[in-house]
TrEMBL record:
GO terms for molecular function: DNA binding. The lineage of its organism: Bacteria, Bacillati, Actinomycetota, Actinomycetes, Micrococcales. It comes from Subtercola boreus. InterPro entries: Homeodomain-like_sf, HTH_TetR, Tet_transcr_reg_TetR-rel_C_sf, YxaF_TetR_C. Residues 17-64 form the HTH tetR-type domain. This is TetR family transcriptional regulator. It holds the Pfam family TetR_C_13_2.
Amino acid sequence: MDESKITERGRRTRQRIIEATGEQILASGIGGTTLDDVRAATLTSKSQLFHYFPGGKAELVREVAGWEGKQLFEAQEPFIHDLGSWESWEQWRSGLVHYYISRGRWACPIGSLATQAAMTDPDLERVIADSMRAWRELLAEGVRRMRTAGLVDDSADPVTVATVILAAIQGGLVLSQPERAAWPLEAALDSALAPLHAASRPQGAPAA
């Protein structure tokens, strides 16, 4: 839908529907979320729902995926675009844990959607894949900055380290959920960052 043609009030209503649907999906999954659920949660009519999302549930879920990805990246600012020092990596780690745990989000919305996307909508799968690739590249770029700064040596492969970190985030959240505690996620992140620390150079050591 062309958002430029929507009034400010309409944009707020549309965004409210997206956010409510995101919460429904986190709680019940894509398959367990119906348009009737969304209508009840947002007090909107069927005609309103299809006015803002003429493509129905599939369009709405793709919009949720885009919004969740934007929220996730914003939560990692400004550190995700730095990651050129050990301090910035620690600040990024702390901020990410806070984003999930402080909001009571014991699952990654992007990760949760990824596990369901292939079974529901190829277009949604592409949206999720693009978000994951963008996230991985930001982390990989941070590893490259560390190598350029001489803080780690070339044995730290940027894409491999970034991929391990993403896997740790998803797995750590799965383990944190039944515990209702941050420590499994924190432990998973620390383990994922261990190879980066292992490749660190002693201060003042020359590059190989």
